Every structure is written in C-alpha cells, then in structure tokens.
Amino acid sequence: MDVWEELRLAAVEVVDRAYAPYSRYRVGAAARVDDGRVVVGCNVENAAYGVTLCAECGLVSQLHASGGGRLTHFVCVDAAGTVIMPCGRCRQLLMEHGGPALEVMTVRGVRRMDEVLPDAFGPHDLETIEGSRS
Question: Assuming Cys at both sites, which of 28, 51, 75, 92 could form a disulfide with 7, CB separation 3.0 to 4.6 Å?
Fold first, then answer.
C-alpha cells in the first residue's frame, strides 16, 4: 500500500474518535515517523474554546509518548475523509517535529513543509538569541 493511502486511511479511522461537541468539526491526522511507525491524533474540544487541542497536537504527543523521532510524511482529514490543511499554529508544530523536508499531503498535492510554512521560526532562532547574550 502507498504511504499516502496508508496515512489517509489511518487519519480517517481516528477522525471517528475526535471529541468535537461544540464545533462538530472532527479532524483526524496521521504521520509516518523516521523509524517507520505511524502516529495519529484527533481534535479534542473544550468548553473553554481556547484550550481545544488540534489533531496535530495529539499526533505530536503520541510521537513523543511512543519513543520520539522525526515526522517524515503527514496527512490531515475532516470527518468526510477529505484532505485538509493544518492551521498556522499546527504548521509551526509540524515544522518543529518534522523539519523543512517533512512531506505534507495538501489539497494541491504533496508539498514540503518549507513550502507550506516558508521562513519558519524555529530552534535555530533561539540559538541565535542565546549566542548574542554570551
């Protein structure tokens, strides 16, 4: 099975576990890790809307809870199984855990993370600040 189909099916499966009683907008996400594992996540809403967890947050939490590593391929779907784009906050999260070469399935096909989030802020920016304080 193709990696993209495997990930899309994993995201479709986990979207049914999303907790979205307020927006009713369920999201599922799946990613391949550099060691071959597949990690998934679904959105979990909260009555205090600002503390809602996106599917990507759950996915990154599972990444670290199951041993860490780097994301290599990522896909996100809505309840109908349609590929959707991660929000800006989640693009930043994905960049942090997959880097510029992370491949992302988008509505316009597969794109690298550095295309999806060009000129991203990251750990290298923090190193620059620390270096200037020395």
Answer: 75
* Residue pLDDT, tens place only, 6-29: 999 999 999 999 999 999 999 999
Retrieve residue 116's tokens.
């999806």
Cα 30 to Cα 15: distance, rounded to the nearest angstrom: 10
Distance of CA 132 to the CA centre of its chain: 32
Instruction: Choose, from 6, 13, 56, 103, the residue flagged as catalytic.
Output: 56
Angle, CA 111 vertex, CA 3 and CA 83 arms, to 5°: 65
Any known ligand binding at 44? yes
Tell me, yes or no, if 56 is annotated catalytic: yes
Q: What is the pTM of this model?
A: 0.91
Domains identified in the chain and CATH numbers: 3-131 (3.40.140.10)
